[in-house]
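Sequence only, no structure available. Ideas?
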Amino acid sequence: MAHKKPNLPEKTCAACGRPFAWRKKWARNWEEVRFCSDACRDGRYAKARLALPRRGG
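Reply:
I predicted one. C-alpha cells follow.
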C-alpha cells in the first residue's frame, strides 16, 4: 500500500502557478524555494515565460 503524505507544506510556483509540496532536497532552504521545477526556474514552458519578468539584454 502506498504511503500518503498529507501533512507536507505546499507553495505555489512563481512561474506556472501550480501547487507543489515540500521535498527532502529542499529541507535546508524551503523558505527560498519559489519554483516547482528546473524548467519553471529557467522559463522553458510558455506559461512560465509569461509569468516571469523579462531579463534585460
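The chain has a mean pLDDT of 81.
Hope that gets you unstuck.
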